[in-house]
Design goal:
The complex is a heterodimer. By secondary structure, chain A is of the alpha+beta class. Chain A is built from four helices and nine strands, in the order βββαβββββααβα. Chain B folds into two domains: about 65-80 and about 350-445, Aspartate Aminotransferase, domain 1 (Alpha-Beta Complex), CATH 3.90.1150; about 80-340, Type I PLP-dependent aspartate aminotransferase-like (Major domain) (Aspartate Aminotransferase, domain 2). Chain B has a seven-stranded mixed sheet with strand order 1-7-6-5-4-2-3, sandwiched between helices. In chain B, β8 (about 295-300) and β9 (about 305-310) form a beta hairpin. In chain B, α4 (about 80-90) runs antiparallel to α12 (about 335-370), α7 (about 135-145) packs across α8 and α12 (about 335-370) crosses α14 (about 435-445). The longest helix of chain B is centred in the C-terminal third of the chain and has 39 residues, at about 335-370. The chains are: A alpha+beta, B alpha/beta. The interface of A and B includes residues 40, 44, 62, 64 and 65 of A.
Chain lengths: ~130, ~450
């Protein structure tokens, strides 16, 4: 699955899309394919604060349980209950329906420091094994 | 799987395949001076000499008949039916280790699954694991399950009536962690902690309240009320208990417990000078991902046949590494098997009978002892099979007098706390008898 151009990326395989001051965060297709069948998601509650480069949740598959790192500082305004109830959605729609959380960002300019889609595609290609 | 030792032919083939002349060559990375050191050992004993040597040590143990022992305090003498030893002695159980290729060990996993099911049923909880090392470490790990730095839950409040050795172990487990352990002093009388004792220490960063049921002094506390206080602060209730009392008492799961830990030694495991024992750990479904240790699960294979697996392994330290709740990656398989055979042999009725007789013997003992002038029952309220007696003068003198008659009267509580001089913790199980109890009462110094 192609990494869409309309968003930014982290070195730890999260994506973030900004709309005004609300950022939607998810994990990439590369992440889901490396992890295998996703079985469980632990996500913060609405109202929780998340911090740049800090782990804010856990994504668990049949063979691993990895931290999900935040690309921004912000407060959680929405949590995707559908994906919590059906974690396998991350395998089929990582860039679409399986977004994880929406946060109100304190400083939208934090996204400037992240990878572009092109840069992320390079990273993913180099990481693949 | 059967054990296949190497033959000389096997070794020769392996040496040829690796191009190595002799097995000693594999050890050349080890520095010469420590590679094959001279060992200064005494001369070899024959099996007969070794047996005599060890028997002489064993003879120094004082092993009184069960009916003359009234010592509990966390390790209990119960009758172990012959089925336990017979089944345990099977090589498949006796020498098996924690399965690392679990699906090949279906028999082992099935026993673990049955064990887990019995523990969950006994404690009234949703899920139990394959066992921990002992009751003390099970309790420490159980408390840690409720901690969450992400949610700001870092305070553990522990009741003063939890077994002192268990409190020591919890303290050790928490060393170096950025957590707040609050040990409440015992201020209420009657050797019982109350909800009022606990309430002042509960704050909004409460991870859990840890209580014991029945408590270390044998008494039964208001566990449900303590649970309500913890829950009102967003914290969990962690209960340390024992299996045999649960045959008669309401299980902790019905009293609001979120996590239950217990010492499983009572279930077919000998007292054995303190071990090996077996820790039981159970919790509500919502805590299952924080549960340490192994979890056996039941599922179906691609042909639709029932099979057993180790499940939720991604929680464990070989995958989560330093982010795992715990680094335990094994269980007490042999003792857990003993516990399963014990419970299966007794069945619910037999198990209740063990508990009933323990209760009745203890209450007869308490009644007769407290009738002796100078002695009184110090445990307030209801108790199961242990209780505290106030003695006329130091408890050690009472114990010395009883020992002269070959009777082990219980635990002198001044050993734990000099302030508790003159208090004796006594225990009775189904292995005690009316005659034995009458004999103890006659031997009590007046």
């Amino acid at each position: 699955m192609e990494s869409p151009d309309d968003r930014k990326y982290t070195r730890t395989h999260e994506w973030v899309a900004l709309d005004g001051d609300v950022a939607t965060i998810g994990v990439t297709d590369f992440a889901q394919s490396e992890l295998g069948d996703i079985t469980y998601l632990e996500l913060p509650e609405v109202g929780d604060a998340i911090a740049l480069d800090q782990a804010f949740g856990i994504i668990e598959s049949v063979k691993a349980a990895n931290d999900i790192f935040s690309p921004v500082d912000g407060d959680v305004v929405e949590r995707n209950e559908a994906v919590v109830a059906a974690p396998e959605m991350v395998n089929t729609s990582p860039f679409g329906d399986a977004w994880l959380v929406r946060v109100r960002v304190a400083d939208p300019q934090q996204l400037d420091a992240l990878l572009t889609a092109e840069e992320y595609r390079e990273l993913a290609k180099a990481s693949a094994h | 799987m059967t054990f296949n030792p190497h033959t000389d032919g096997d070794r020769a083939a392996m040496l040829e395949a690796t191009g190595v002349k002799a097995v000693e060559e594999f050890f050349t990375p080890v520095p010469q001076r420590v590679r094959f050191p001279e060992l200064d050992l005494p001369p070899v004993l024959t099996e007969l000499e070794a047996t005599d040597h060890l028997a002489a040590f064993a003879a120094r143990n004082d092993a009184p008949p069960a009916q003359d022992v009234y010592l509990g305090a966390g390790s209990y003498r119960h009758f172990i039916p012959a089925t336990v030893g017979q089944i345990l002695a099977r090589g498949e159980f006796y020498t098996a280790y924690t399965p690392y290729q679990p699906e090949v060990s279906q028999g082992t996993l099935q026993v673990i699954y049955e064990f887990q099911s019995l523990v969950a049923a006994l404690t009234g909880m949703d899920v139990a694991n394959a066992s921990m090392y002992d009751g003390a470490t099970a309790l420490a790990e159980g408390a840690l399950m409720t901690v969450s730095s992400a949610r700001g839950r870092r305070r553990i409040v522990i009741s003063p009536t939890v077994h002192p050795a268990y409190r020591d172990v919890l303290r050790t487990y928490l060393e170096g962690l950025d957590l707040d352990l609050v040990e409440i002093p015992l201020t209420s009388s009657g050797f019982l902690a109350t909800p009022d004792d606990i309430a002042p220490y509960l704050t909004d960063d409460l991870a859990c309240v840890v209580v014991q049921y029945p408590n270390f002094f044998g008494g039964i506390e208001e566990i449900a009320a303590m649970g309500d206080l913890a829950h009102a602060r967003g914290g969990a209730l962690v209960v340390s208990t024992y299996p045999v009392p649960l045959a008669l008492l309401q299980p902790p799961g019905e009293l609001g417990a979120d996590v239950v830990a217990a010492e499983g030694q009572e279930l077919g495991v000998p007292q054995g000078y303190g071990g090996p024992y077996v820790g039981l750990l159970a919790s509500r479904q919502s805590y299952v991902r924080q549960m340490p240790g192994r979890l056996a699960g039941m599922t179906t294979d691609t042909d639709g046949k029932r099979g057993f697996v180790l499940t939720l392994q991604t929680r464990e330290q070989h995958i989560r590494r330093e982010k795992a709740t715990s680094n335990i990656c094994t269980n007490q398989g042999l003792m857990a098997t003993a516990a399963t055979v014990y419970m299966a042999t007794l069945g619910p009725e037999g198990f209740r009978e063990v508990a009933r007789r323990s209760y009745q013997n203890a209450h007869y003992l308490a009644e007769r002892v407290s009738d002796v002038p100078g002695y009184s029952l110090a445990t307030a309220g209801a108790f199961f099979h242990e209780f505290v007696v106030a003695t006329p003068g130091p408890a050690r003198d009472v114990l010395a007098a009883l020992l002269e008659q070959g009777i082990h009267g219980g635990l002198d509580l001044s050993k734990l706390d000099p302030m508790l001089d003159g208090y004796l913790l006594m225990c009775a199980t189904e292995t005690n008898t009316k005659q034995g109890i009458d004999r103890l009462v006659d031997a009590l110094p007046r």
